[in-house]
Amino acid sequence: MSSSGNVTHLSQPCIYGDFVSPHAERKSGFMKWLNKLLKGGSSRGSVSGGNPPQFIGDESMVLRAPVRSLDKRTRSDKEKEELDRAIALSLAEGLRKPNGYGWQPGNDNNDLAKSHQDDFHPSYPPYVPMGYRVCGGCNHDIGYSNYLGFMGTFFHPKCFCCRACSYPITEHEFSLSGKDAYHKSCFKELTHPKCEVCFQFIPTNGAGLIEYRCHPFWSQKYCPAHEHDNTARCCSCERLECVNVRYISLGDGRSLCLECMESAIMDTGDCQLLYHSIRDYYEGMNMRLDQQIPMLLVERHALNDAIVGEKNGFHHLPETRGVCLSEEQTVASILKRPRVGGHRLVGMRTHSQKLTRRCEVTAILALYGLPRLLTGAILAHELMHGWLRLKGFRNLIPEVEEGICQVLSYMWLESEIMPNIPSSSSSSSSSSSSSTSKKGVKSRNENKLGEFFMHQISHDASPAYGGGFRAANAAVNTYGLRRTLDHIRLTGNFPV
User: Fold this and answer.
1) Domain LIM zinc-binding, which positions (predicted)?
2) Is 0.85 topped by the overall pTM?
């Protein structure tokens, strides 16, 4: 849910006026007109030769200059009389409507009148003699020009401007945030959240509240409808496709964003260097794999077929991205990487390969088309499955086996994006990986992706992968990796 905090959205009143005579001290004239008004109610509000001040609605108060007449009195006398008349009418109106706008007598004899403050609207400015008003926008004297009064400050009409666009506010309704005024449209543009997928204002729900979805890592805000309208989602980073950026279709129901595409590994040959570097990482922690385990990159359907043909093992469907095989199978590996044609990959060449069982592990399979760090995390996980089988770990429950494999995947990612921080998970005297010196400088996007993949592992909600990782990681942080593995070999569970 979203709402605008500390922001008031009101229809704000302004005072419009021409001029008022500065001779407000004529108390005797004021009392005469007051007596006339109280005695002669039928003639109230009607003055020969001119128009009295008018109080219009709750939105604005208008003061107009008196009209010229044939009266031969001096201008000064007429202005004094008009001012007395205006004050008297205002007071009489205020006496009849205690909560209305009008002039009321003050407690100080030196103050003839003060403005009444309404409980809801911002207060009207106090009466200031004409010629002493300074514009709050340009800081110049307003003089006898038209003016606006807002929250105790006077403005030339052209100087009362929106804080966002700096253009004058001419509408009767506007929005207020603190002491800053905005056009209603500008205020909505500033405060109302926009969908980062369709770039439209996120609509309100049935209760009139702004409801949206937000990715827990990337903070991508989007309309709830995009979860069900077939909007493409990156199979790597999980961000939704925006209307102005097209994702690449991998041809097997998956889409890849352009940032993940930058470091994507597309065929088995390109992945060999990464695979050997992860084997070196294991060897650097005194976890050497004695047998050469084949590794193949495959399409989604080939991976699913291989999982179906595997008799043993626990798989995190439907998000399985890799598998460690122990059965003899024939799989189609990607021999030649495809090229980008339009917004999809074309020209892929596959090769059917028979995997013969020569040890406890037949091969390791991983999905093609994923970024280097995600592919490496998958291979590190599956290599741990292979290491456990080759070292004689038998009949482990899913929480233990998947949990310790996720720990190795997390440790490898941590070494890649934070290579200068030694791993706290290993108690081995030779904990540094020989692959560390081979790493190149990664882009900011790739490092951010690595942090996201680590976030996925640590926040996985599944009992085996998520709960197992958290239990395994706590044990490794307390006892070290070697002692934890020894305890698993003896008891089949994590040390407590």
Assistant:
1) 133-193
2) no
